[in-house]
Amino acid sequence: MSHSGYNKTQLALAKAIKMLCKPLIRLLIEKGITFPQFRELMKTLYVEVADESFALDNKKSSDSRIFVLTGVHRKDIKRIRQQATEQDSSIGSSASLSGEIVARWTSMPEYLDQAAKPKQLLKTSKNNEVGFDQLVCSVSKDIRPKTILDEWLRLNIIHIKDDYVILNKSAFVTNKEFNEMAYYLGHNMHDHMASCVNNILDENSPMLERSVYYSRLSKDSVEQLRTIANKKGNELLQDLNKQAIKFYDADKMKDDANNRMRLGVYWYQTQLNTDGESE
């Protein structure tokens, strides 16, 4: 990357952006999103973020101010702002609803067996025995349990045996369908990135953002650490999930219930290159 056109702060940031964007660019190329498409998306995002985060006195910024902030041409700014924004929320709502149902199934006492594992649930509650319909309705009464049942069967989140609904292990990482995986990619990485940006821009209110890094390890040692990380990470997320559900049920009808949170755990491993470095 050329150093021309950057001051020292911008250069440090540009180097970080180059590193964090490499996996993203790999994904875009793999899925056929070309540079011209990505460039147009970035234009739109520059205008949207400038509109959302850099208004003066809570007034809508002029095209000229957006141009000064972003460098995007005025004619593009005008076109972007005039375009009708059609947002398809079906993927997001479906993914978040599925996630909440799975979260309750894997943490609430009434849906767990004696080994604290998700119970096999009857399709329909009967004789005080909890059912899949009860689980879905505990999250949302606006959607029929059979709709979720049919969709989860299609996505291999569950299977049915002797009229019991059984949660597949793959459901613990949501499902394998690309649209929903992309949904979580965007939301999880957005919040991780937002936490990092907050810690750079607002030193007085740092958010939790930590990692452990070691190199020069054997593959066997890395795999042992991976096993430990999986176990400890799952324990942390499950414990927090149980507490969060209690808070959610207690808070959801309160006037000040307008905050959200996300805690993520990630693991990455790869071989060092010939220079002994890793991207």
List the defining traits of the structure above.
279 residues; mainly alpha; three-stranded antiparallel beta sheet; 3 strands; 4% strand
Description:
The protein is mainly α and 279 residues long. Among the domains are: 90-171; 211-279, no CATH class. Helix content is 54%, strand content 4%. It is built from nine helices and three strands, in the order αααααβααββαα. The protein has a three-stranded antiparallel sheet, covered by helices on one side. A hairpin with a 2-residue loop joins strand 2 (158-161) and strand 3. The longest helix is centred in the C-terminal third of the chain and has 33 residues, at 219-251. The protein is globular.
Blueprint (SSEs and pairs):
Blueprint: H1 8-30, H2 35-53, H3 63-70, H4 74-82, H5 90-105, E1 121-122, H6 132-139, H7 145-154, E2 158-161, E3 164-167, H8 178-201, H9 219-251
